[in-house]
Structures are given as C-alpha cells and as structure tokens.
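Incident review: delayed structure delivery

Summary: a single-chain prediction request sat in the queue longer than the usual turnaround. Root cause was a stuck worker, restarted by the on-call engineer. No data loss occurred. The affected request and its eventual output are reproduced below so the record is complete for anyone auditing the incident later.

Affected input:
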Amino acid sequence: MKRIMCAAVILLLSAVGLSAQSPTTTYPYLYDTFTSGTVVMSDGNKEARQMNVHLRAGKLHYLDDGVIKEAFLQDVAAVEIGDDVYLPVGFSVMKVVAKNDNGCVVLEQLGDFEAAISGTGAYGVSATSSATMKLTSIQTDSQINQNYMNILNEKTDGMDLGIQSVYYLITPDYKVKATKKDVEEALPDDKADAFKSFLKEHKIKWKKPQDMLKVVDFLAR
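Output delivered after worker restart:
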C-alpha cells in the first residue's frame, strides 16, 4: 500500500458537505436522490456517475441507464458524491471527515434497521407487525437491478430509518475503530507504553475528527 492512504482524495473536492438525509426502509439510501459525482480509479482515470450509499452495509450504488447497480470497489481509489469524499474500506465506502499525509478519519454510516422495526406504533402497539410489508424489500436488498424511479416512488411506503455513525482511523497499516480501547487492542505490545504516554500528553476527544488525526499520526510512527 502507498504511504499516503488519502492521496486520491486530493484529486477531489476537499470540502465535506452536509447531505440531506431522510432514508426509509424502502429507500435505504444516505442521500435523498442519486447524486452526480466522480469515481477516481486506481490508475488515475475518472468516471462521472450518479451515485448513492446504500445503508445496509455501506455499499456504493450507481445508476446505469436508470437502473440501480452495485459498484465493485477493487480498482477504486476514491469517490466524490456531491461535496462529500469517500474511500473504499473493505467492501464498503466511508466518508472522509479529516485527513493528512499520514492517513484519514472516516465515518461509517449504516441504517438502524433493528430500531425501525422494533419501535412503537399507534396506540402503543408494537410497530414490528405493522411494518412487515414495509420492510420486505430491504430485507432482500432488492434495490439492485431495479428501476430507480420505481424505488424512489416507493420511498414513502417505508418507515423512517435512523443512521448509526461510527468513526474509523485509516493508515497504511491500520484500519481501526476510533476508540481508545480499539486502538489499544490493535497495537503491538511494543507500542503499548508509548500509546499510554501519548494519551497523557494529548487529551483526545474521540468524537472530534481533527483531534483523532493526532492518533492517526501516532499510528503512522
């Protein structure tokens, strides 16, 4: 792997924009509509696409002649959707919220499907039974290979879908959840004492991306 994990991000917009979010169980997407953006390939080539992030597992979806397709990420270096920049992490994409020459802080955003079906419905009745039909399509991730306008028109047939957000730290050698415990468990034994000293010197706020870049710098030592 190249030392600078986020080099491809420099080719895209550096601003991280805020997106309108009103996903449902029948339209489980981060953005309200499929949005114009750019895919930067590992060889430097760029492709313009209309894209969205599917909230089941953070998959990248795009439109092909009005039909929803799932992107294969093995040759993708970075993705821009609107003003947001994403990096492939495993088989999903995560939004870059802070970066420097040593790595990135990225945000994983997934739908809280369990909460959507276990909430309370009208008159105190559990929403689980009344939501069964509304969840059918998402249970099979059936948006793939479907006509986009048909899926968009079914958006209001579903239940509101909350979003769970988790930060990760990405360097050439690490992909770790951004918590003190997870970083400690990921470090080799010979770095454990150094990390304790680092934490004493730097009071890391684990919800602030710019603060977490200090941990990225530590991991890159």
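Verification: Confidence is low (pLDDT under 50) at residues 10-18, 120-126.
Action items: add queue-age alerting; document worker restart procedure.
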